[in-house]
Design brief:
The structure holds three protein chains of three kinds.
Chain A lengths: L1 H18 L22 E4 L14 H5 L5 E7 L6 E9 L8 H5 L5 E4 L13 E2 L1 H5 L10
Antiparallel strand pairs in A: 1-4, 2-3, 3-5
Chain B lengths: L2 H19 L5 H36 L15 H10 L11 H18 L17 H9 L1 H12 L3 H32 L4 H7 L5 H4 L1 H14 L24 H26 L10 H22 L5 H29 L1
Helix pairs in contact in B: 1-2, 2-11, 2-12, 3-11, 4-5, 4-6, 4-11, 6-7, 7-10, 7-13, 10-11, 10-13, 11-12
Chain C lengths: L11 E5 L11 E7 L2 E8 L7 H6 L3 H9 L6 H16 L5 H30 L3 H21 L8 E2 L2 E2 L7 H24 L2 H7 L7 H6 L5 H5 L6 H4 L5 H4 L11 H24 L20 E9 L2 E9 L7 E5 L1 H6 L2 H4 L5 H10 L4 H5 L1
Antiparallel strand pairs in C: 1-2, 2-3, 4-5, 6-7, 7-8
Classes of the chains: A alpha+beta, B mainly alpha, C alpha+beta.
């Protein structure tokens, strides 16, 4: 019985010890944790030197995507080697954020950026076209 | 030191007003009763507000998080917001319920606690009525809680609430016995059941030094009386049957909730009075010492809640009857022997 | 049915429905009760069936890899490891040593994370609210390490055929040092709160006792089996990845009740911690992925059974390939399904309040059961 009481008191002491420690959570909308550089937030297109996209419409990303969320519209033009991109859409509502498309792309056109706040009121707004994929959100303030 | 002089002065002033205006003489005690009632009700209201906020903050910091932070300074107004939310909720009543009992049960849970505050000494002479049978009165009044629980469970008209109500009533009744027996040791030492006399008898050494076993038994039994972990089967969400207050919503649920917190403070105040010397203490006014000691016990109960797992129902009952009860008797016998021999 | 006592009693049925705070996932049990005791129980599974096995037949091997993570999302590296190992065995690809060590180290980190959740949820079921948050705090440490390297905190998509996806970043080593230093003290904290706590012992000692022979008959594996006294651990009996070089002695306890199952996992957390330390110290240099492995492999025809020791037990993948680039049959042997199969026997005659610790101590994850 003595041993039991002792261990009950030890449990209380451990809890009290934690009472005196600093809290480890952050107050979310006002403070945020900074993400690690490799964090797989949303898929984004990498701008080239003129600010355009680097996609060559090879469709390897579509081949590898497990969620079938990428749509590509392309056509062949006379005198141009390869395809010309008409439209490139990623449905971020279907995307599972695995990053296989980034690995599959041989031209470095895609990257995963640490953006995760993409709430919308209508699901159709989650289909990002090239312009939206090239854009980035403004930097929020971080708390480490 | 603060309350008693102020109230006495008010009383004298009112007597003077009654005499000078020629009002009937029963105006004096009537006004006294009204003032006392308002004071107690106001105290409990503010107290419960504060206690709920304190519970949330303490539990949060034990878990290394912040708790309520946005409503008011560090969430101080959070309880008011919660109360407003509960007030505007729809008051659902199950169709198969027993309507009169259903409506009364929450208030049946709350009223005895308010009444019990009549004999708690808040400071030197600051008791509303220092009854000769103070301790007995307290324990008798808090037993009405059992009726409230059973009627809450029965009136909900659902078999799960009924089972929960029965279990809760069994727990309450079983833990009454060690509770009263542990207080008996203190009464023997003080020689009286008057709360004021018990506090006076502790002017030298607090009774917790003379009666450590009784103090431990009292705290454990009190935790069971207010349905807190490790004895909170009646309100456990993880168990199958959700307890007697599952069908209540809105203000009625708020009443049960209020009653629990007020009850928690009540048993802590009784513990502070019986074992920790009531309002006695150096250089601060008695009211402050009373509050400090009561809140210390309240914090102890809170720590129990957030640290320990829950006992099973049969373990709970066997713990009360096979463990606490013999210990309480042992305590009484030893106390009696020591009093006779020394 | 009236029983033959003087008082007329009747058994009644209680539904522990798909939504319940204590069943870890969507799991339904219909209990037949006599007073406070369970007479019989009827488990209903399948609420979380996502037809993973069928989906695998329609996906390329590399396409299914992120979905394999989601079969048991709390131990996702193990599911992906089984997938990769099966493909590597069929294609006869040799994984370079650095990749093996990295896989082992991260799998042990994942095991710690899963056991932290078990610890928190088990305590929460029994009523102690605080250890839940402590468990999640430790999980944050492991998830930070995993996030630095893989990019995600839960379904990592880190393994590739022939190795791992990426090497350790520079920020990994100081963080790992800190984690290794801090973690044993934290486990001691948990043990202080729960291990010898009278109330906890009263709730879990002697409850749900399962002896070793019966456990083996029902196909148990993992810490549940080892708590019943059977000394079987894939990491020692059939070593894979780097476990052969590192050596591993499993944690075996004898009594087989809920307390032992809980204690087995706490001790396994310590053992995993020691393994991670060994891995980090002995990390060989070299490539992290085998060169020239095709991204969209055409796996030669054949069948293979790849097993890993996941935190729940023996996770097995039986892969049948017919030479195409998609699997022909992807059969999963998930440990939680077999662990859960004895629930009916275990619940006979126990108190209603004992169902929760028994079910919690099995550490069953419903997506693992239902796939």
């Amino acid at each position: 019985m003595v041993k039991g009481t002792w261990w009950l008191l030890v449990g209380l002491a451990t809890t009290t010890k934690h009472l005196l420690r600093r809290a480890i959570t952050v107050q979310y909308p006002k403070e945020r944790f900074e993400q690690w550089p490799r964090f797989r937030g949303r898929v984004a297109m990498v701008p080239d030197d003129e600010g355009g996209h680097k996609c060559t419409a090879c469709a390897q990303c579509i081949r590898v995507c497990p969620a079938a969320c990428i749509t590509l519209e392309r056509h062949k033009e006379e005198g141009v080697k390869g395809f010309v991109v008409d439209g490139y859409f990623i449905n971020l509502g279907l995307c599972i954020y695995c990053g296989l498309c980034v690995e599959a792309c041989n031209f470095g056109a895609l990257a995963m950026i640490p953006e995760y706040e993409m709430s919308v009121y209508d699901k159709s707004e989650l289909v990002y076209d090239i312009t939206k994929l090239l854009s980035r959100q403004l930097e929020p303030e971080f708390k480490k | 030191m603060i309350i008693h002089p102020v109230l006495s002065w008010l009383n004298e002033w009112w007597k003077g007003v009654v005499a000078s205006y020629g009002l009937p003489s029963w105006f004096v005690p009537a006004a006294q009763m009204v003032v006392h009632a308002i004071l107690i009700a106001g105290f409990i209201a503010v107290l419960v507000l504060f206690l709920i906020w304190l519970t949330r903050k303490v539990s949060a910091h034990i878990q290394q998080r912040f708790g309520p932070m946005r409503v008011g300074w560090h969430g101080a107004v959070q309880t008011v917001a919660d109360a407003l939310k509960l007030v505007q909720k729809e008051d659902t009543t199950p169709r198969s319920c027993d309507r009169p009992v259903f409506n009364i049960a929450p208030f049946l849970a709350f009223a005895p606690t308010v009444v019990a505050f009549v004999v708690i000494p808040f400071g030197d002479g600051a008791i509303i009525r220092d009854l000769n049978i103070g301790v007995l009165f307290l324990f008798a009044i808090t037993t009405i809680n059992v009726i409230a629980v059973i009627s809450g469970g029965w009136a909900s008209g659902s078999k799960y609430s009924l089972l929960g109500g029965f279990r809760s009533a069994a727990q309450l009744v079983s833990y009454e016995v060690p509770l009263v027996l542990s207080a008996l040791g203190v009464i023997m030492l003080a020689g009286s059941m008057k709360m004021g006399a018990i506090v006076d008898a502790q002017s030298g050494i607090w009774f917790v030094v003379y009666q450590p076993l009784a103090f431990a038994i009292y705290v454990i039994a009190a935790t069971a009386e207010v349905n807190r972990t490790p004895f909170d089967i009646p309100e456990a969400e993880q168990e199958l049957v959700a307890g007697f207050n599952v069908e209540y919503s809105g203000m009625k649920f708020a009443m049960f909730f209020l009653a629990e917190f007020a009850n928690m403070f009540l048993v802590s105040a009784i513990a502070a009075t019986l074992f920790l010397g009531g309002w006695r203490g150096p250089w601060l006014p008695g009211e402050f010492w009373f509050l400090i000691k009561s809140f210390a016990i309240v914090l102890l109960l809170m720590f129990f809640r957030w640290t320990y797992p829950r006992l099973r129902v049969d373990q709970l009952m066997s713990f009360a009857w096979k463990f606490l009860l013999p210990l309480a008797f042992l305590n009484i016998i030893i106390t009696g022997l020591i009093i006779v021999l020394i | 049915m009236p029983t033959d006592t003087a008082i007329h009693t009747q058994e009644f049925q209680v539904n522990m429905g798909p939504q319940h705070p204590s069943t870890h996932g969507v799991f339904r049990m219909v209990l037949t009760m006599d007073g406070e005791r369970v007479v019989d129980s009827e488990p209903h599974v399948g609420f979380l069936h996502r037809s993973m096995e069928k989906m695998a037949e329609n996906r390329l091997y590399i396409q299914f890899l992120p979905m394999a993570d989601r079969i048991d999302y709390l131990s996702s590296l193990f599911c992906a490891a089984a997938h990769c190992e099966a493909v590597e065995q069929l294609m006869e690809i040799e994984v370079p040593p650095r990749a093996k060590y990295l896989r082992t180290m991260f799998m042990e980190l994942n095991r710690i994370a899963s056991h932290c959740i078990f610890f928190g949820v088990f305590a929460l079921d029994l009523g102690a609210v605080t250890p839940f948050l402590y468990g999640f705090r430790e999980r944050e440490l492991t998830m930070d390490l995993l996030e630095m390297t893989t990019g995600q905190r839960m379904t990592f998509n880190y393994l590739r055929f022939g190795g791992v996806a990426a090497d350790l970043p520079d920020s990994f080593f100081p963080a790992a040092e800190k984690f290794l230093k801090v973690f044993p003290g934290r486990i001691t904290d948990y043990e202080r709160i729960l291990n010898e706590n009278e109330i906890f012992l009263a709730r879990t000692k002697g409850v749900g006792v399962v002896d070793g022979a019966r456990a083996v008959n029902y196909g148990w594996s993992g810490p549940n089996l080892r708590a019943s006294g059977v000394d079987f651990d894939l990491r020692r009996n059939m070593p894979y990845e780097a476990y052969g070089e590192l050596g591993y002695e499993p944690v075996v306890l004898t009594r087989g009740d809920c307390y032992d199952r809980y204690l087995a996992r706490i001790l396994e957390m310590r053992a995993s911690h020691a393994l991670i330390k060994k891995c980090l110290e002995g990390l060989p240099d070299g490539p992290t992925v085998k060169e020239k492995v095709p991204k969209f492999p055409k796996v030669p025809a054949g069948e293979v059974y790849a097993r890993v020791e996941s935190p729940r037990g023996d996770y097995g993948l039986y892969l049948v390939s017919d030479g195409a680039d998609k699997p022909y049959r992807y059969k999963l042997r998930t440990p939680s399904f077999n662990n859960l199969s004895m629930i009916r026997e275990m619940l006979r005659g126990v108190y209603l309040a004992d169902i929760v610790p028994i079910f919690g101590s099995l550490d069953v994850i419903l997506p693992d059961v239902d796939r």
